[in-house]
Specification:
92 residues, mainly alpha, elongated
Length: 92
């Protein structure tokens, strides 16, 4: 859904932080994807989960070198929740 916004990862980004945040937000991404009715978009639930993965990568790449790790985590969580509402608005 937002693949066109992705850019290559910044040079020297913290891979450990990326992997840590990815693992910590995995449950949130799954829960948010589960709350969306995939039939309204004509896709399966794995496709919707991949939308949230793309959003995670985009937000992490945007803020990873500008802020502390906890603030990056907060931005990622907020962006994922906001993204869910945006998807639901389009569906209904």
């Amino acid at each position: 859904m937002e693949e066109h916004r992705l850019t290559p990862m910044k040079n020297g980004y913290d891979q450990k932080l990326f992997n840590d945040l990815y693992k910590k937000t995995e449950g949130l991404r799954r829960a948010l994807a589960y709350q969306i009715d995939a039939r309204r978009f004509g896709v399966d639930s794995d496709e919707i989960l991949s939308w949230f993965d793309v959003k995670f990568i985009y937000v992490f790449n945007k803020y990873c070198d500008q802020m502390e790790p906890e603030l990056v985590k907060g931005h990622v969580i907020n962006a994922l929740k906001t993204f869910k509402y945006r998807i639901m608005r389009e569906a209904y």
